[in-house]
């Protein structure tokens, strides 16, 4: 079996340098790290996880707490991509992933108890009810935690810039001549509140008055609910010229409602989504694409930093920007009379 001494001889460096390079420590040059890692892969080196755990007093195992409100699990494409990025980054740094839930076998347990049972070094928390006392108990513990799209005091958070994202989306729709812009938003949570803030900020800056009935509470990732709420908007007089939906997937329900009303997109009505999932590309949907790769990668990287360098890792909020995808579902009516 290949040892780190074999790698050290191959690279002409000290054993301690190989150890530091393989464990991602900062006091090794990038050139040396790449040389060592390439040699380790070429020689078929595999670390003994039990020995490494005894030496470092760590399990090299990250917990992931993920319990989405829509009960879609990993079929929720947005979060599936985020979590895949968490997994890829963790594995690249020598860590495994364990999903945390409220049971150990058939025995109900708290999230914190499950983390202790599995011996995880830290936890990424994404898409849960952050008001759940079990989540609060976990966050209040000393275990390293990074949250995605939610901010706790004194905890590191990686957050998609939903305020800026929605502002960009509204400004783009406005630039296409639309003044009657409706917004079906998701259920009340920090993400929704941020997007509503972005929506109203853009409208205020553009001196755009939006009637209260154009702002309709809906739900994320629920096409059937979106279909019902879209019907409500289509009954308004005057009808919106453009509707923003909670997310790209929910728009599937709106498609049914628009077809039932005999409306074509974008000839008769314009639409926009949010998230930038693959469905949006298939439908050429105008949307705001969140950077799931950077969100997941940053969350894993920061959590590992908290675990390995707790005294020098800043507990902060890290904003991750996405980008506007123009698509073809927002018609340019700026030059049409009485738009």
Mean pLDDT: 89
Low-confidence stretches: none
User: Shape, please?
Assistant: elongated
Question: Reading side by side through the largest sheet, how are the strands ordered?
Answer: 2-1-5-6-7-13
N to C succession of SSEs? HHHHEHEEEHEHEEHEHEHEHEHEHEE
List the total number of helices. 13
Number of strands: 14
End-to-end Cα distance = 73 Å
Helical coverage, percent range? 40-55%
The percent range for strand residues is 15-25%
Helix/strand-derived category reads: alpha/beta
Rg value: 24 Å
Give the biggest sheet: 6 strands, parallel
Please characterize this protein's 3D structure:
There is one protein chain. A 6-stranded parallel beta sheet has the order 2-1-5-6-7-13, sandwiched between helices. Strands 9-8-10-11 form a 4-stranded parallel beta sheet, with helices on both faces. It is α/β, with parallel strands linked by helices. The protein starts with a helix and ends in a 14-residue tail after the last strand. The protein has helices at residues 4-11, 15-22, 30-43, 49-56, 77-92, 111-118, 133-140, 162-175, 190-205, 223-234, 251-260, 278-283, 292-308; strands at 61-66, 96-100, 103-104, 107-108, 122-126, 145-148, 156-160, 181-185, 215-217, 242-244, 270-272, 287-289, 317-320, 323-325.
Summary?
With 339 residues, the protein is an alpha/beta fold. The chain has helices spanning 4-11, 15-22, 30-43, 49-56, 77-92, 111-118, 133-140, 162-175, 190-205, 223-234, 251-260, 278-283, 292-308; strands spanning 61-66, 96-100, 103-104, 107-108, 122-126, 145-148, 156-160, 181-185, 215-217, 242-244, 270-272, 287-289, 317-320, 323-325.
């Amino acid at each position: 079996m290949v040892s780190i001494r074999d790698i050290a001889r191959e690279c002409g460096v000290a054993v301690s340098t190989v150890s530091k390079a393989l464990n991602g420590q900062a006091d090794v040059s990038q050139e040396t790290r790449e040389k060592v890692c390439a040699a380790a892969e070429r020689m078929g080196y595999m670390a003994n996880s039990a020995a490494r755990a005894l030496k470092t007093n760590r399990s090299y195992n990250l917990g992931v707490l993920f319990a989405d409100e829509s009960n879609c699990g990993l079929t929720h494409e947005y979060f599936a991509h985020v979590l895949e990025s968490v997994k890829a980054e963790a594995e690249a740094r020598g860590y495994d992933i364990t999903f945390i839930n409220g049971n150990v076998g058939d025995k109900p347990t708290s999230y914190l108890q499950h983390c202790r049972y599995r011996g995880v070094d830290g936890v990424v928390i994404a898409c849960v009810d952050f008001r759940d006392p079990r989540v609060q108990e976990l966050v209040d513990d000393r275990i390293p935690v990074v949250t995605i799209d939610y901010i706790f005091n004194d905890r590191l958070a990686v957050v998609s810039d939903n305020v800026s994202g929605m502002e960009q989306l509204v400004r783009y729709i406005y630039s296409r001549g639309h003044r009657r812009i409706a917004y079906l938003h998701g259920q009340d949570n920090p993400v929704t509140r941020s997007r509503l803030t972005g929506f109203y900020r853009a409208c205020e800056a553009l001196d755009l008055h939006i009637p209260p009935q154009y702002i309709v509470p809906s739900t994320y990732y629920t096409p059937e609910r979106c279909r019902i709420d879209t019907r409500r908007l289509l009954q308004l007089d005057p009808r919106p010229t453009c509707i923003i939906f909670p997310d790209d997937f929910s728009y599937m329900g709106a498609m049914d409602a628009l077809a039932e009303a005999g409306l074509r997109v974008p000839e008769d009505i314009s639409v926009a989504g949010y998230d930038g999932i693959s469905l949006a590309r298939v439908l050429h949907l105008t949307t705001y694409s969140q950077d799931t790769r950077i969100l997941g990668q940053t969350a894993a990287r920061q959590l590992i930093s908290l675990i390995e360098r707790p005294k020098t890792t800043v507990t902060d909020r890290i904003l991750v920007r996405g980008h506007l995808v123009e698509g073809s579902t927002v018609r340019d009516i700026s030059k049409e009379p009485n738009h």
